[in-house]
Amino acid sequence: MIGRRGILTGGAGLLLAGCDRVVQIPAARRILFAGEDMQKGLQRALTDRAALAPEFRPEQMSPVFRSNGTRDPGTDAYRALADARFADWRLEVGGLVARPLRLSLADLRGMPNRSQITRHDCVEGWSAIGQWTGPMLGNVLKAAGVRPAARYIVFTCADLYGGAPYYESIDMVDAFHPQTILAWAMNGRPLDVAHGAPCRLRVERQLGYKHAKYLMRLDAVASLAGIGKGRGGYWEDNVDYDWYAGI
User: Fold this and answer.
1) How many CB atoms lie under 10 A from the CB of residue 228?
2) Is the N or the C terminus of the chain less surrounded, counting Cβ atoms within 10 Å?
3) Secondary structure of residue 190 in the 3-state scheme
4) What is the second-level CATH architecture of the domain 4-239?
5) Which strands, in side-by-side order, build the sheet including 164-171?
6) Cβ atoms within 10 Å, residue 190
7) Which residues form a coiled coil (predicted)?
8) How many CB atoms lie within 10 A of CB 244?
9) Which residues pair with 200 in a beta bridge?
10) Which of 124, 116, 149 is nearest to 222 (CA)?
């Protein structure tokens, strides 16, 4: 039986030129996400959620690493931040936390950082291996004093879809996974705009659309009910992507 990942990597006839187009075809959507409500529960029940994603050697890094999703938010606010080399950018950490934070790039760089060389698997059907550096999200949440009632972390981004900020979410298991980091560097250099500057999520056990770019704030919440249409992410709400995109 061919699983979803096999379809994604081998079903070229279904794959179009972007994440926002690949499942616009009803037949493709049915194939890609058939039985996901049952599969995701079974997958999460049977999979070791603490297991590490494979890591690679420097010589295995891809010579070209495509960008996924938005290539440039293109708003006046983002352009001003980029023109100032993100000196005025702050990551807001709030919601169900005891100590709300406003973190600068210097703050993130000053925390204990993790570097990992991992493979990015995109729903568009391509993969690439690159190095990412940043503090573990779990350590940021500990610094903020995340409250026991929190069940999810919601990420709000600088890029706009339909005039509203892009958003994504993960649960606390993935939030505290050691390979889930707030990456500010790629391949030993600060992130460029196409790859999510100044900071993006890396949640290495999930498909690429979960790796939110252009992070502006993150909130610990008890429920996804009030987030968008309640499914936890822009693509989940609008194009029937699966909320748990584990690989």
Assistant:
1) 17
2) N
3) strand
4) Alpha-Beta Complex (3.90)
5) 101-103, 91-95, 215-221, 152-161, 164-171
6) 16
7) none
8) 20
9) 183
10) 149
The string of DSSP codes covering 73-127 is ---HHHHHHHHTTTTT--EEEEESBSS-EEE-HHHHHHS-EEEEEEEEE-TTS-E
- The pLDDT tens digits of the residues spanning 47-83 come to 677 899 999 999 999 999 999 999 999 999 999 999 9
Among 160, 188, 167, 184, smallest CA distance to 79 is for: 160
| Two structure tokens written together for 8 | 């994604």
Query: How many angstroms separate the first and last alpha carbons of the chain?
Result: 16
pLDDT above 60 (res 11): no
Q: How far, in Å, are 33, 170, 204 from residue 177 at the CA level?
A: 25, 11, 9
- One-letter amino acid at 198 equals P
Question: Dihedral through CA 227, CA 229, CA 230, CA 233, nearest 10?
Answer: -70
The reported pTM is: 0.83
Q: Residue ranges of the domains in the chain?
A: 4-239
Separation of alpha carbons 245 and 247, rounded Å: 7
